[in-house]
Sequence to fold (902 residues):
Amino acid sequence: MLNARALAATALLPLVANAQNQVNMSTGVSEAGAVITDLGVEIYDLHMLIFWICVVIGIGVFGVMLYSIYAHRKSKGVEPSQFHEHTGVEIAWTIVPFFILIGMAVPATSTLLEVYDNDDAEMSILVTGYQWKWKYEYLDADGDNVAFFSNLATSQEQIYNTDTKGENYLLEVDEPLVIPVDTKVRFLITANDVIHSWWVPEIAVKRDAIPGFINEAWTRVLAEGVYRGQCTELCGSYHGFMPVVVHVVGQGEFDDWMAAKKGAAAADAALAATELSVDELMARGEDIYNASCLACHGANGEGGLGNAIAGSAIAVGGLDSHLNVIVNGVAGTAMQAFGAQLSDVDVAAVTTYQRNAFGNNTGDVVQASDVVSYKEG
Amino acid sequence: MGDHHHGPAKGLSRWLYTTNHKDIGTMYLWFSFAMFLLGGAFAMIIRAELFQPGMQLVEPGFFNQMTTLHGLVMVFGAIMPSFVGLANWLIPMMIGAPDMALPRMNNWSFWILPPAFLMLASTLLMEGGAPAFGWTFYAPLSTTYAPPSVTFFIFAIHILGVSSIMGSINIIATVMNMRAPGMTYMKMPLFVWTWLITAFLLVAVMPVLAGAVTMMLMDIHFGTSFFSAAGGGDPVLFQHIFWFFGHPEVYIIILPAFGVISQIIPAFSRKPLFGYASMVYATAAIAFLSFIVWAHHMYTVGMPVAGELFFMYATMLIAVPTGVKVFNWVTTMWRGAMTFETPMLFSIGFLVLFTIGGFTGLMLSIAPADFQYHDTYFVVAHFHYVMVAGAVFSMTAAIYFWLPKWTGRMYNETMGKVHFWVSFIGFNITFFPQHFVGLAGMPRRIPDYALQFADFNMMSSIGAFIYGASQLLFLYNVIAAIVAGEKVSDEKVWDGAEGLEWTLPSPPPYHTFETPPKIEEQPAH
Fold:
């Protein structure tokens, strides 16, 4: 008996160990008790209102049914009644639910109108879904936009169970979206290839990213913090691996971050004008490979969803055809045109890396200037 | 005539050439059960991969093939054909007709199904793999970015659509023309009513689905741009067309289930169905509303707010006729003299779980809240409560209820009850926790998930294995009954059963009601 209990306890251990199993929608309030977004709180309240109405109706319906199952059974010698209609009751249970629905529709309508109130935004960010990453572009009135890609940061080792999974497994990115606190931010959401959907539960924003069209959404986050979400529209093989991470920071910190971003962009542009050493190119190329190529082409260039790079005719063949694939993509396949996604330095670095890693010892060194001249034809 | 000697032909040709509604009904039922096991096997692979976080058994691309084929096979291969099989067996016997109105077409509408599914299943072996874009196959993932096998998928969908349309025309023609004298519309058993309305829905929306897949075919092979913004098209157009088919489709699945439940609950309550007329009107109202609510599947695509409001209000309205149905069933039980044989257990299971699915449906109709629910496991939980505990439970109830009539042999009641309880518990362990992970933020159709979802997913997988295994018990029980079940001596089988089919011998002869029965002057329900 005792043994059986111990066994049962062990079996239940994983359930008990993680006491933080969340069973309900995000309340819109942080653990510290601060409101994250007003809209999030309102949606949560609406959700709970409908939930409790359903619970009350459910108790009524199931209560009557269970009592009937208990009391009106043949084994108790009940003689079945033969009534089979009652106009008054039937009209009542058609009309009454109608009024209950109106009671739900009123708050739902006002909340929906708020969701759609995209006016008076203080800043705009263009969010573009790619297979399988997000691109964020801060739209600047002077045209000095800052743009970057946000890739999954969880390692393949963690995904394939050869390394311990971290706390934010699958919900971590290399570069998060950063927005200032208490600022109305408008998101312009679109996609480059297939339909994606941008969702952060805690700030209650979800909108489909549709190629060729731009959707609007907005938020005003009142509590600083890190908020995590995921793509919620099936977008291909790695749909489960394109998280959204939003850092909400104070205005000062945001300004510093923005200045640093602009500085880095300028530095990148400067870098494109210089010659890099092989080691610099290889190191930079490896990072880019891991972020942008590895999911399809494998950790060792062995291929997978995409073709193998190790020993491939393209990676060890003529440089122009290699650059063509990377810069322009391959139409009709999942191979994207990275010329529009990566800077010239990064294209140069990743091309160098692919031509020299995984046993592709071509010895070729590709510089940003080569990429520029390739693009210019 | 006078040529009454002919029973069924012998051997394979009996089944290949048959125009007999009972034979065709039997084939539909066996075929759909085979598809149920196949779709179930895909589900087991999905749940096994999701047992723990991390990728263990399959690759993400293959996982997507599994979710896609699971949905397609269950909807088009298991549930829909099973109810067509039920209609074939029962509608002629319930309205006092000798057979279906168009028996040769009946044969054809069944026999094009197996090749269609063979073709769909064969895509698993093709280069690039099977379709991996979900059973809703949203463009452009299903067009520009689809594997080459998508063309076979499109052709399979076309064939399934043709089969469904032919089956529906047959049902409409049968019900309208072949009722026994005196069987007015408002005396028809509710199962016949729900199928008549369902058949109209099918005839209305299957061509729309055919249009959608044809546009895909054109986009893929012939350079059109229906669903590509680059050529002036719109990916969202696909969703509008798909769901204009897709929402009526879910009622196509559930209305015949309502019909089944409306036959079984009165039988085991030994009391007439409460509110027969309002049941008919509610069914018609649901069918009408099903055409004007499709975009509630698309609240997040960026519709104008006026559109959102229209679809929200229209969707909420569905709660009214659906509520009427639930209230009617509960009131039918009220002050009856109930017994709880397996068909009744499954019907009560249906009633409880379908109502829960209805509640979550109401929650999902609320557009601003749906922004948080959309495409999460909350939706997965919702539609499995209405599809599995709704359609599949009612189908299971129907098999237990009419099997003794069809075969003249009784299934094992104890085993049937065990099947019910294991199914009921397994189902809830599988799908109830999915409400939690969905609300907590787990998207659907992902092969791997964040650690906070781990416990509930493990629970869900365990439940799925239990539910899946319990279906093997069902299969065994049915086969054992057919082969060696206790013979049924009584025509009625169940002492509360009402309707013309229960006036026939058990099993019924190969041809029944060659002379129309006399309908007594009392309500047939």
Notes: Chain A touches chain B through 100 residues (CB under 8 Å). Residues 4-19 of chain A have pLDDT under 50 and may be disordered.
